[in-house]
Amino acid sequence: MGFFDRLKSGLSRSREAINEIFYMGGEVDEDFWEDLEDTLVMGDMGGELAMRVTDDLREQAARENLNRADQLRDALAKRLAQEFRTADRDPFEDVPSCVLFVGINGAGKTTTVGKLAGRARGEGKSCLIGGADTFRAAAIEQLEVWGTRAGVDVITRERGADPASVCYDVVEEAEKRGTQLVLIDTAGRLHTSSDLMRELAKVVNVTRKRCTSMPVTVVLVIDATTGQNGLAQAKEFNDALDLDGLIVTKLDGTAKGGIALAISDQLGLPIYRIGVGESIDDLETFDALDFCRALVGEGK
Ligand SMILES: Nc1nc2c(ncn2[C@@H]2O[C@H](COP(=O)(O)OP(=O)(O)O)[C@@H](O)[C@H]2O)c(=O)[nH]1
Ligand SMILES: [Mg+2]
Fold first, then answer.
1. Residue range 256-272: average pLDDT?
2. Residue 126, Cβ density class (10 Å: 0-12 exposed, 13-18 middle, ≥19 buried)
3. What's the pLDDT tens digit per position in 62-84?
4. Given ligand 1 and candidates 7, 133, 278, 280, which is best to mutate, with the most ligand atoms within 8 Å of its CB?
5. How many angstroms does the Cα of residue 109 sit away from the middle of ligand 2?
6. Which GO terms describe its biological process (predicted)?
7. Burial code of 158-184, b = ≥16 C-beta within 10 A, e = fewer?
8. Within a domain: residue 118?
9. Contact of 97 with 214, CB cutoff 8 Å
10. Is 241 within 8 Å of 221 (Cβ atoms)?
């Protein structure tokens, strides 16, 4: 399967509802516009964004005399794509580079680090993984399994060690080896969310300060199936850590792919990659227009 087909099959659950309105009747009438706006809201784009996009498309339809639903499909994809922030720099391509992954437990941080490490090795880049989730022994083991699978060394410390010290170690080792890409996995759960944010802020600050030889990028990994809840989460992380960008995971298992758009739009952050499955190859580079076309469908 080619890239676009994989993305499309990943987003098929998000696309079903949109497909329905484009196939129904085919007339662009008052009901069509209402259904479109509702469908965008249900796909977790958020009310304000759904309204803005629907209004713009409605104006365009009037201006260009588009009165069949299928004529509007690509216009919708293009209009949605405009809402995404674009990245100035790809932290996984533009090396040397050090990337910290943050996010709540279960978001897909460790899996994403593993996928990216595998990809980097496949491209012939040198890579090193830092395991700064030292709260659970199982977290360290899981990361080591991914490291082995990807053929990348994992630097960590014993359970309970200071996560910031792991960052220090991994940056030092990377500088010694001349490593191109450093990927640091962090913990997603502490007793309270304010403990987590304080701990992560320390990890981020130590890494930013220690790592002078390459840019440090802080990426929030977010599970698309968390819907609007994910937006509140993303805001909390952004306020505490001043994020650089996002990776949205589990777009294969949700009808709420629009959340990717809502978060990128509201936080003004680019999406670097998207996760569309559990295996090592299920990570895609993000292209806003491809994504929106896969979300909206290409028509017949
Ligand atoms: N379907 C699907 N599952 C994913 C994806 N990314 C991660 N997962 C699964 O989500 C679960 C939690 O992932 P993990 O990397 O341990 O999350 P962490 O707690 O943030 O490190 C695991 O079962 C992963 O296999 C994805 O893109 N799609
Ligand atoms: Mg983890």
1. 89
2. middle
3. 999 988 888 888 899 999 999 89
4. 278
5. 5
6. SRP-dependent cotranslational protein targeting to membrane
7. eeebebbebbbbbbeebbeeebbbbbb
8. yes
9. yes
10. no
Which residue intervals of 25-134 are DSSP H helices?
A: 30-42, 47-64, 69-81, 109-122
Phi, psi of 266 (to 5 degrees): -70, -35
pLDDT band at 260 (very low <50, low <70, confident <90, very high): confident
Asked if residue 295 belongs to a domain, the reply is no
Q: Which domain holds residue 135?
A: 97-287
Instruction: Tell me, rounded to whole angstroms, the distance of Cα 243 from its chain centroid.
Output: 12
Residues 156 and 111 in one domain: yes
Q: What is the pLDDT of residue 24?
A: 59
Structure tokens at 28: 């662009």
Decide if pLDDT at 231 tops 60.
yes
pLDDT at position 300 is 45
| pLDDT in the model for residue 189 | 84
Residue 274 makes CB contacts below 8 A (sequence gap 6+) with 7, 10, 247, 248, 249, 251, 260, 283, 284, 286, 291
- Residue with the larger pLDDT of the pair 39 and 220: 220
User: Would the CB of 188 count as within 6 Å of ligand 1?
Assistant: yes
Report pLDDT for 109.
97
Annotated binding site: 103-110, 185-189, 249-252
The span from the CA of 257 to the CA of 273, in Å, is 14
The arithmetic mean of pLDDT across residues 232-242, rounded, is: 94
- Does the CB atom of residue 110 touch ligand 1 within 6 A? yes
Strands 181-186 and 216-223: unpaired
Q: Do 160 and 11 fall within a single domain?
A: no
**Which of 46, 81, 116 lies at the terminal end of a domain, its last residue?**
81
Q: Tell me the residue ranges of DSSP E strands in 111-152.
A: 127-132
